[in-house]
Design brief:
Layout (H helix, E strand, L loop, with lengths): L4 H10 L17 E3 L2 E3 L12 E4 L6 H9 L5 H6 L15 E5 L35 E2 L3 H5 L2 E4 L7 E6 L13 E4 L12 E12 L6 E17 L4 E8 L8 E4 L7 E2 L16 E7 L11 E4 L12 E6 L9 E11 L4 E8 L8 E4 L1
Antiparallel strand pairs: 1-2, 3-4, 5-13, 6-10, 7-8, 7-12, 8-11, 9-10, 9-12, 10-11, 14-15, 14-19, 15-18, 16-17, 16-19, 17-18
Length: about 375
């Protein structure tokens, strides 16, 4: 059966962006055209008076909406419960409405102050017009900082492990909503309500130039929250699954990781000479993608010691294969987080395929 090009394009445009590597069920089928967008659902058109209704845009997730509206991403199930037409929480579609709350308290009117004749003020010089009216924007999204990877030189810091799961007799991997059991409890300082990052051990990472070990790569596969703690064990619920969660995955205490707010810097021109700022190298990119481009998260070998800070930008370049010729500009990146001996970043501009081993120069 033939499908027209216009329908294919429409479906691709309306497909949501899932978290990197997320192990989720296939998208609901079939899609149908509802108004000006495609969806597999039958969303409501009438809402209770006072409701807050968010129209889904490309890239939205229930996790992000809970953070945006409820200031706590772990409250995403509350939003899902308010929208029973969404059959699978992993799949929401641009154009569909999402009810965030079902009632809004009316604020009492403020008392009207008695009008007082203002005292004339002496004329003051007009304030200067702002020279930069741009608004800062997030450098990335929550998956860039919560669902990427980290390097660890000392693996002894991982004392807490997922040792069992409620459904392990018939389920090999685990995801959001699954119950897991931890090898630490009240004796180890664990208590109900504690949150943890979940890490899955991957491999050792070596510097592309020096070949020295940079540490062991751990994928950030999710987060969980402790439901209750026994003496030396705990029961927890997975609240976010970026990828498969497995028995043996290790935990570290949760800490909020803000996405930097930035303003676009002046783009580097191919005629610009090197600026003399610290230079480094891309040492890893998400999923070892060959020919990375804009939107891909990477690790670089610069950190606080070189004056790096979240929200800083850098030029990506490659030495010219012909000796004595100007460098080759490849793109730009922005720093997301600064870690011990390295930083994570997102490629913001890619004018050519970018590889591990390509160099960067801080702006």
């Amino acid at each position: 059966m033939k499908v027209t090009t216009s329908i294919i394009i429409a479906i691709l445009i309306t497909m949501p962006i899932s978290v990197m590597g997320a192990s989720v069920a296939p998208p609901p089928q079939p899609l149908h055209l509802l108004g000006d967008h495609w969806t597999p659902y039958d969303p409501p058109t009438d809402f209770p008076e006072g409701s807050t209704v968010h129209i889904v845009v490309r890239g939205d997730t229930l996790w992000d909406l809970a953070q945006q509206y409820l200031q706590d991403p772990y409250l995403w199930p509350q939003i899902w419960e308010q929208n029973p037409y969404i059959k699978d929480s992993h799949w929401i579609y641009p154009g569909d409405p999402v009810v965030i709350n079902l009632a809004v308290e009316e604020a009492e009117p403020e008392p009207v102050a008695e009008e007082v004749e203002p005292t004339p003020e002496p004329e003051a010089a007009a304030a200067p017009e702002p020279t930069d009216t741009r608004l800062p924007y997030p450098l990335g999204n929550s998956s860039d900082v919560y669902c990427f990877a980290r390097l660890f030189k000392d693996e002894s810091i991982f004392g807490l492990t997922i040792s069992s799961a409620e459904t392990m007799q018939y389920q090999g991997h685990f995801t959001e909503g699954n119950i897991v059991y931890l090898n630490g409890g009240a004796e180890q300082g664990i208590q109900a309500g504690d949150r943890f990052f979940i890490f899955h051990r991957m491999r050792e990472v070596f510097h592309p130039a020096s070949k020295a070990s940079m540490g062991i790569l751990y994928a950030q596969v999710g987060q969980l929250k402790v439901i209750c703690a026994q003496e030396n064990t705990s029961i927890a619920k997975i609240g976010l699954a970026c990828d498969n969660v497995s028995i043996g995955d290790v935990l570290l205490p949760f800490r909020p990781i803000p996405v930097p707010l930035v303003l676009d810097p002046e783009p580097t021109d191919r005629c610009d000479a090197p600026n003399g700022n610290p230079t480094g190298m891309i040492v890893f990119n998400r999923e070892d993608i060959v020919g990375a481009t804009a939107g891909i998260t990477v690790m670089v070998d610069l950190s606080e010691a070189e004056g790096v800070y979240p929200g800083q930008f850098a030029t990506i370049f490659r030495d010219n294969p012909v000796e004595g010729m100007p460098r080759l500009l490849l793109g730009e990146l922005g720093i997301l987080t600064v870690e011990d001996g390295y930083s994570t970043a997102v490629i913001t501009k890619g004018w050519a395929p970018i590889e591990v081993g390509d160099r960067i120069e801080l702006k």
